[in-house]
User: Fold this.
Amino acid sequence: MNEKDYNLMSESEQLVAVNQDAYIIRFIKNPSEAVQLAAINKNRYAIQNIKKPTEAVQLAAVNQNGEVIYFIKNPSEAVQLAAVNQNSYAIDHIENPTISVQMLAKLLS
Assistant:
């Protein structure tokens, strides 16, 4: 299948596709939040193939492994806190962590 085929699919067909292979998400132009979450639940590293992951999707990914925050551009403070709470070393992958995030990382290390 090529990129066009995935974009012509219904949301339920896209869900089936990403449940089979999370990296198919890279071929879907504007995946719904449900499709994004399905990809993350299949493989947290699929976050790197989602252009504009919702905050819920970002949280789902970092709650599985805080270090995947490396792949998220401009994560919210909530996402930063979740990542550091899951893995205190995630702070090493956050550009400009907030003071709250820095304090949490220090507390957990």
Observations:
- Residues 55-109 form one domain.
